[in-house]
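Okay, is this right?
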Amino acid sequence: MSKEIGIFFSRELLHDKNLSTSEQNMYAVLQNLAKDNKVISTNKKLGSMLGLQENRVSHIIGQLKTKGYISIELLKTKNNLSEKRIIELRVFYNTKGGKK
């Protein structure tokens, strides 16, 4: 049995002319996964949620970063063999009128 999730899109996000539809979808997923405005997730996991390949997710995340909607911090694990990516949301939407 698969677990289904619902994703909330604010009206303001849907009408943000600076973002493509793919970027809007990714940002909505990130907003819904965020705890304290931060998300720790892999491209594989994000891609599976949106039906996208990992390289496409990487491109969309890069575009969101370039446009200033997110920042990315890479942390080395204790053994320094891998990194953990933390995505921090930089633009916030509310249901009462635009970006915060």
